[in-house]
Amino acid sequence: GQTVGSAYAKKVAVDAASVPGLTVSAQNNIELEIADFVDTGGDATYELVINGQTILNNGAVGGATITSAQIADAINGQSDVTGVTAALSGTDLRLSSTDGRDIIIGETSTGTTIAGGVTAGTGGDTTLNGVTYRDGIIGAAADAADGFTTTATVVNGGTLTFSATENILIATDGTNFGLGAADVTIALDTTTLTSVDVLTVADANDAIQRIDSALTSVSGLRSTFGAIQNRFESTIANLTAISENLSASRSRIQDADFAAETAALTRAQILQQAGVAILAQANAAPQTALALLQ
After folding, report:
1. Ranges of each domain in the chain
2. pLDDT tens digits, residue range 31-51?
3. pLDDT at 101 over 50
4. Beta strands of the chain (E only): which ranges?
């Protein structure tokens, strides 16, 4: 199970919200400095646990050594269970979980003094959940004195990377966003495709994500412009039909035979005048008969 503060849990919650145009990726990385564990006394044990899975449970007896390479190999050997991989570069050990799950590290040593250990990167103190681990994240295990047991544990919650094709408002109550503190830092990455490189896997994945986001934006714009184009085409077709109807009417007016139409109009006027004259005569006959009777 993952804590509610883990990047993994937050990514699941964001994905479940199905916010249009928003994608989120989660990852968790810890940069550590590591040195070989050497038993400077005669008898000691060392145990390393990551995400509840025992990675190492060795006794460094009689000056025996647990090398940093062995630790990295042991972590990678359990990556299917823990979800955490290790990469070693000199004295630097990078622990990563690509799905953003918690990286919970526990380190225990007993017996005589052990030289070496896993410590934080250059810079010293690390503060998580209000607890400060000075001069190292889990380096306390390297200070186990004769007859004592020293245990140190740290939880790293990871980070989220948001990509959006539209403006997205991110709100927090100021106390539960992120791991350990109320302060939340959200930065806008202004890197453009012209300045990215693909020299590392992380940079290549970042470039792919940027290209996918750009393609999504272009696809959205194409849909918008396509709808506008369809409306323009419909309007153009309607105006074209109106223009054709007006042109046909104009042609009929221009092609009319004015001589024939004038003759027909004259004939109609003559017939009208003849009808009026006959009607006047018909009305006059009764008037004449009445005059004779008087």
Report:
1. 7-161+171-176, 191-256, 258-294
2. 776 666 655 455 666 777 888
3. yes
4. 22-39, 44-50, 53-59, 65-66, 85-89, 92-97, 103-111, 114-120, 126-128, 131-133, 148-156, 159-164
